[in-house]
Amino acid sequence: MSKKKVSYFYHSDVGNYHYSSEHPMKPHRIRMANELIKIYGLHNKMQIFSPKIEQFGVREMTKFHSDEYIKFLKRITPETQDQFQRQMNSFNVGEDSPVFVGLFDFCKISSAGSVEGASKLNLGKSDIAINWAGGLHHAKTDQASGFCYVNDIVLGILELLKYHNRVLYIDIDIHHGDGVEEAFYTTDRVMTCSFHKYGSGYFPGTGNIKDVGYKDGKNYSVNFPLDDGMDDETYVKFFKKTITAVMNFYQPNAIVMQCGADSLSGDRLGCFNLTLKGHGECVKFIRSYNKPLLVLGGGGYTIKNVSRCWAYETSLLIDETELPNELPIHEFYNYYTPVYQLHLEPLYMQNKNDTLVLEKHFQEIYENLKDLIPSPSIGERFRPPDLLINESELETDKFLNEKSDFRFTEEQFNSQIRPFNEFYESPNYREKNKLWVKKSIVDILEKYKLESVFDNKLLESFNQVENLKNSNSNIMTNNNRKNIFQYNTETDLSQIMKKIRK
Ligand code: V1D
Ligand code: CA
């Protein structure tokens, strides 16, 4: 394996956040991993960055999430939560995803690391970017889920899409990567591929092999359902077969890998029997494709194994020679009792995965992949500005404050626009038919005067754009922005686009 430029994102505050003493998610595990990385000397082989959380806030998070949800996350505290019961229910904040001290800052650390990592890859400053505080794959547009509040993965992928035409997302957390799948369910620009325990009511309950994507995204979602007791040999075999097919047929320009460590043997919430060797072999395999690679954390609830895993995988990513199995003495050495070694032994447990069933699953996935229509090239695609670095003067969080008169410049305004088919609102979730209008649709409608194909609400939005132009202004108030770009309609925008293309 060749040497690569590796960026490592770590914020020294991350280990100080506490969900609650009964809660299995312990951000301290990331600090433990960082200490192992340092004591093994791995930090000398990477560029180390602390995510710039002062420059990351509401504006960056609302590239995916709704304004109302992020505004809520910013405001809510353990002291005030009793007054916000209605919003807590609506945003699914509570038992699994509780309010804790510093929640919003924790979300910033996690998300800023992933987006900055993506930006390093975009600019060719790194070949690999690592953010073990990221990988929070369950968060939805306007809901927390499964310990995840802000979906750093979706935000990171959106950053990558500014430069990369096709992004592959791979998820080896034991849980289904539902939030990321849902976000890109109707686009061919992102392929999502999750391996997960499926069945018997296991969280989150999605990720059936038949869920393959929708409309433009059909066959661009891959789900490999697995059962209890999965061992290294079987997992690595089917992981490699599946990824080989995915890589051949999709040919991504960049890869994001979520390395949830709850798929390891002995995890407090997991039920697989993987060791660091099997889990790490998947990471090594992805690295060998030599594509820009964003590596993220995720679940993992036996914290001494999480830190072992992510320290070991850091060594694989920088291509360090085999780490000594004896753990060096360091601040958290006592956590590793009773076996003060890096590697895990598998447990004696039955592997409930029948190889013939897995083979059948693989064949089904392969059949879907082999008919993929090659994805269109990026062409003249509109590219939003890069991640704001040195743009602190933008006062990014102000736009949600209704009392402030924050206005967008044309550039800032454009950067808020969501590609029209990159977000999927599943019929099972929240508001139906909530669609986002892409600026280019408005432009095309304007160009061809296609009033006949759009409904009154779109006409209204169109007229607002016209009025704005006529007023000779390149600024936009937050209210205008919301009126124009977010509305509920039953109009199917992809049908409109088809008519326009004809
Ligand atoms: F055991 C607990 C104690 C306190 C609070 C929550 C839990 C807990 C354990 N397992 N919660 C779960 C899962 N939730 C449920 C729901 C409860 N409802 C009735 C169903 O089963 C959530 C598991 C989340 C897993 C998160 C993840 O590992 O995938 C992850 N990846 O990146 C970040 C987190
Ligand atoms: Ca998974």
From TrEMBL:
Residues 23-315 form the Histone deacetylase domain. Pfam families: Hist_deacetyl (PF00850). SUPFAM superfamilies: Arginase/deacetylase. Its EC number is 3.5.1.98. Its main location: nucleus. It comes from the Eukaryota. The keyword Hydrolase applies. It is found in: Nucleus. Keywords: Chromatin regulator, Hydrolase, Nucleus, Transcription, Transcription regulation. InterPro entries: HDAC_I/II (IPR003084), HDACs (IPR000286), His_deacetylse_dom (IPR023801), His_deacetylse_dom_sf (IPR037138), Ureohydrolase_dom_sf (IPR023696). It catalyses: N(6)-acetyl-L-lysyl-[histone] + H2O = L-lysyl-[histone] + acetate. PANTHER family: HISTONE DEACETYLASE HDAC1, HISTONE DEACETYLASE HDAC1-RELATED. Belongs to the histone deacetylase family. HD Type 1 subfamily. This is Histone deacetylase. It comes from Anaeramoeba flamelloides.
